[in-house]
Here is the input.
Amino acid sequence: MNSKLDETLDNPDWDGMRMLGHRIVDDAVAYLQSVRERAAWQPIPAAVRKGFDEPAPLEPRAPADVYNAVRERILPYPTGNIHPRFWGWVMGTGTLTGAYAELIAATMNANVSGFDDAASAVELQVIGWLRDLLGFPGTSTGLLVSGGSMANLVGLTVARNARAGFDVRREGLGAAPQPLRVYASTQVHNSVKKAVELLGLGRDSLRLVAVGGDYTLALDALEAAIAEDRVRGARPFCVVANCGTVATGALDDLEALASLCEREGLWLHVDGAFGALAALSPELRSRVRGLERADSLAFDLHKWGYVPYEAGCILVRDGHLQREAFAVAADYLAPAGGGVAPRGTFLADQGPQLSRGFRALKVWMALQEHGAHRLGRLVHQNVEQAAYLAERIGAEAELELMAPVPLNVVCFRYRGAAAAQDWDSLNRELLVRLQQSGIAVPSHTLLEGRYALRVAITNHRSRRDDFDLLVSEVLRLGRSLVAQGRTAAAS
Ligand SMILES: Cc1ncc(COP(=O)(O)O)c(C=O)c1O
Here is the structure.
């Protein structure tokens, strides 16, 4: 036989590939074992960066050489969120078992559309577990998605189609007899704004409702906005509640919002990207009470579930509405009455993707390895660390705590000992220096127009002394910036 006709991408040197695999695993273990000893973040040197401009390779290269390039040019420059002192944005830490799960998932290369295979069974089991752990009823369905943004998009698609009052799928939004309205607090995540735009509702259909001093949605302002819209002839159909706002971790009153939505006939979608998993902790569960009354709930596993990227989840209370929003019949996908496609639950009917990766495996393995109780303890530990940091900040006259700390997010800034300064600029500079030092990575936000350093803790590697180091570094950098007269006129 002419072997040219039978070329394959499987490397015939299976022993060599096994050795390479062992080396990769050995390196991965060492990499995570020693992560604390390295900088939380370091910039990519110019020479290395240049390599990313190289043209597409046209000829083969030995796998070991390819891996050597990974070792030299990629592994040393992570985002940093594997490090114990990375608290920027809301990023999860991942685990070694999660990395193993990714290897196994890619080895099986399952296409988790809902065929008769173990991967689909694992995803259905994971959805069932999450549903039970978060108190959703057996009628609910769910789907693992890429993250909170996609979970919000899927949830809001179901909400729109279920509550628009006409057949959106057939007629399109042009047929809407009344403008549709969605409500959320001013603190809502930008992924909800994106979703509203992607759904063709238009940015103006999202009414941003005022918050109180604790950054939670003001119920009276919401009621007034709904009443006003009804008088104007619009059709309110959905409230998006925050279970942990991105800026400060604020928790909207979910019980009150669920009751309000019931009274008003509105869909309640909860964005619980990180906050939802507070329900795993007995100490925190009361803070997210009402979560289980949502019509749809979006949350991430790659944040407070500590599994590697990407993994988010959407749960929909009334499961048939999820299928009604997404299922589209196709001859080539029709159930075959047996074989690979006998058709139980076809997962692709519950979201926008047909081909889907096996992200369920890392969640399944994480829940098996740790159990929900340990995960809940870690979530609680992060919340206690946030309280500890807030206490440390409160005890330092040169630091200012800038918002309440209801969960795991701490906003603060250096405000010096005496004279007025442009504290916004100083803290902006301080943050860049802190990140560049490799010691710690907080991020920032604006609170009522004032610049704040922001620490969001979804990190299972952080220890209390990491927060002591953060406080001492912020004080050191703040003092040195003041001494250098880095800041301009008083703000
Ligand atoms: C409250 C909130 N909602 C949604 C998202 C979006 O989630 P993802 O980044 O997983 O798409 C985030 C991300 O930080 C978030 O904090």
Notes: The chain has a mean pLDDT of 96. Residues 230 and 249 are 31 Å apart (CA to CA). Residues 89-90, 147-149, 189, 191, 244, 246, 271, 273-274, 300, 312 surround pyridoxal-5'-phosphate (CB under 6 Å). The radius of gyration is 25 Å.
